[in-house]
Amino acid sequence: MIGATLFLVGAGLLLITATSLTGYDLLYPHQKRSVTVTFLFPIAATLSQLLGVSRSRLRTSFVKVNNSLTKAQRKRIGGERLMVLLPHCLQIDICNRKITSDVNNCIRCGRCAVGKFVELGERYGLSMEVVNGGSLARRRVALFRPDAIVAVACERDLTLGIQDVYPIPVFGVINDRPHGPCFNTSVDMALFEEAIKFFRKDAAVV
Ligand code: SF4
């Protein structure tokens, strides 16, 4: 019994690794991504804890593998109803515009990256939400019911979020934290735009 379980876990990990490396959807039609999200990742988390691998490194790997699997499944992802989730900590601390209620309250003054996101959102016709935690993110996702999500956050929040919203495909972009966690964060805009283009490959730019 233990041998069979180990064999299945090993085979699952092998299939996921091969899909990540080759970019071919080897998981179809068995939907092994659900196994990755709900089963293999918790096992990997426990094992890595025992082996002393940092949680941060494990979460970063999980986000990367998830992105590879999402890319490999591109033929099965619609992407017409694409949602962008941004963390509140992208907003500079001295700005008092209420962007969690409506990102368009940003006046694009250029003091932080939020204005650039609003511009990109208009250009690609995206639904964009700024959230200050997992609860608000879950509420906005439940309301909009997107085909796919591009989410910017730290590796911890992305790992939790990807598992929370499964089976909605998520492309995660890990933010930069030059001033420490949750404070005046930034993000590689080229990486973000690449993720948008992946989902909106057939959509005309507005
Ligand atoms: S770009 Fe928008 S969110 Fe950032 S400081 Fe200016 S108004 Fe505030």
Written account of the structure:
50% of the residues lie in helices and 11% in strands. The chain has 206 residues and is α/β, with parallel strands linked by helices. It has two domains: 2-74, no CATH class; 78-199, Rossmann fold, CATH 3.40.50. A four-stranded parallel sheet has the order 2-1-3-4, with helices on both faces. Helix 1 (2-22) crosses helix 2 (32-51), helix 1 (2-22) crosses helix 3 (55-72) and helix 2 packs antiparallel against helix 3. The longest helix is centred in the N-terminal third of the chain and has 21 residues, at 2-22. The protein is globular. The protein binds iron/sulfur cluster. The site of iron/sulfur cluster has 13 residues, from helix 4. Iron/sulfur cluster (SF4) binds at residues 91-92, 95, 97, 99, 106-109, 111-112, 114-115.
CATH fold-level topology of the largest domain = Rossmann fold
Total domain count: 2
The total count of helices amounts to: 7
In helices, the fraction of residues equals 40-55%
Whole-number mean pLDDT: 84
Order of helices and strands: HHHEHEHEHEH
Please name the defining characteristics of this protein.
206 residues; alpha/beta; Rossmann fold; 4-stranded parallel beta sheet; 7 helices; binds iron/sulfur cluster
Helix/strand layout:
Layout: H1 2-22, H2 32-51, H3 55-72, E1 82-87, H4 114-124, E2 127-131, H5 134-144, E3 148-153, H6 155-165, E4 170-174, H7 189-199
Parallel strand pairs: 1-2, 1-3, 3-4
Bound molecules: iron/sulfur cluster.
